[in-house]
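Posting for a labmate who doesn't have an account.
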Amino acid sequence: MSTTNNNVAADNTDGPLFILEADDAALDQDTRNVMNSRITDGTRDGYERCLVKVMLWAFDDMEQYGDKILTPSTVEKMKAAHLRDKERRTQAGRPSKKRDYIREECKTMLKAISKRDESTIPIRLENLNFDLISRFLATLKRVARGMKDNNGRKVVVRLKLSSYEAYCSALSHLFTECGKDRESTCPGFFGELSKYKKGARRLAAKERRELGLRITEGKKPLPLKAYRRLAEILFNSEKKEYVQAHTFLVLDWNMISRSESVIE
């Protein structure tokens, strides 16, 4: 049974629940905190890093991409931060290549996004399309360490699928943060991105296979010999905490073995 009035409510399990008086601003801030907690801080930081790279890519080619993707106020803020970066010098007195100020400015704008105020949105979502973003995704490559082609030039390979998925997830997150429907704002955009990821995965695997590079992602599996040695060390130890560790290792190994992820 519960009773309520304007100030107090009772809960069957937790006892009296007091509703504190607060102004609208404090209540709105509490709502924002709740909504922001739907994803972890680490995931949010990862999304923001991806979006910052997209913004920098557009800013660095202002004539072709910047004016299409970035809002005028965003461009002005980035220009001011860019000038601050240009003023920086290394210890040797040479111009610094670091872009800390402009990156921080981009992060600040992304954190300040409010669904209720479109002027806080730094990117023109309605102008995003597959042709533009696919050009950015095509730049996501890295140099294969220690490898050169027949002309002595460094070999460049595509990134693995997880990298493309991170950027696509970051773009989807941006629409959510701005309160915009993806399909109505950019019809067909994310459908094309999904197709792009599939093609990029195949091409990346093909390139790595031809170059003799590792194709699979993630950490290397634990060999059976290493598992046996770890189990032996934990079993023979006199430390009490190793009893639980040994049990966990054996159970975990058996679960991994069932999925055939073990190297014999």
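Reply:
Got it, the structure tokens are right above this. The beta strands are 8-11, 15-18, 141-148, 154-158.
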